[in-house]
Design a protein that fits this description.
Layout: H1 3-22, H2 30-51, H3 54-62, H4 68-79, H5 81-86, H6 88-101, H7 107-129, H8 132-140
Helix pairs in contact: 1-2, 1-7, 2-3, 2-4
């Protein structure tokens, strides 16, 4: 595959992940999200290796770790919203259950992961679309 095709695929994957993080109601399942998430990580890793980009390596390390279960718990929050508004005690019980299901990660932490992922995607997209930015970033670190 040529370099331009790989770059287009990376850009499209980043845009998809960015969109899903900003509009999580459009995520089908945690498994679907993880496929796109892992694809993005793989493509950034490939780009970092092929271009010897320290910036891409650093960004790759900044991505928070997700699990499909966490994403599913986060997606369930909207489905149960009507019930939890009507019965505050049920909301507390549901919150505790979600914390157990997601192995301790609460909805706020998961939301923070979505926001961080979205931001990283946006930054990487900017560098891909404007390659001079990476050089400026590298110069500013010296």
């Amino acid at each position: 595959m040529d370099k331009e095709t790989e770059e287009n695929r990376l850009v499209n994957s980043l845009k998809s992940l960015h969109y899903l993080c900003d509009y999580s109601q459009n995520i089908g399942t945690g498994e679907n999200f993880m496929e796109i998430y892992n694809d993005v990580l793989h493509r950034i890793s490939q780009r970092a290796e092929s271009t010897s980009s320290n910036y891409m390596k650093e960004k790759l390390d900044e991505f928070p770790q997700f699990s499909a279960k966490e994403v599913d718990v986060y997606l369930d929050r909207d489905k149960d919203g009507a019930i939890t508004r009507l019965a505050p005690i049920a909301g507390i019980v549901k919150g505790l259950w979600n914390t157990v299901k997601s192995k301790g990660a609460n909805l706020s932490n998961i939301n923070d992961k979505f926001r961080a992922t979205s931001s990283i995607c946006k930054n990487v997209l900017q560098v891909i679309e404007q390659p001079a930015l990476e050089e400026m970033i590298n110069q500013s670190k010296k």
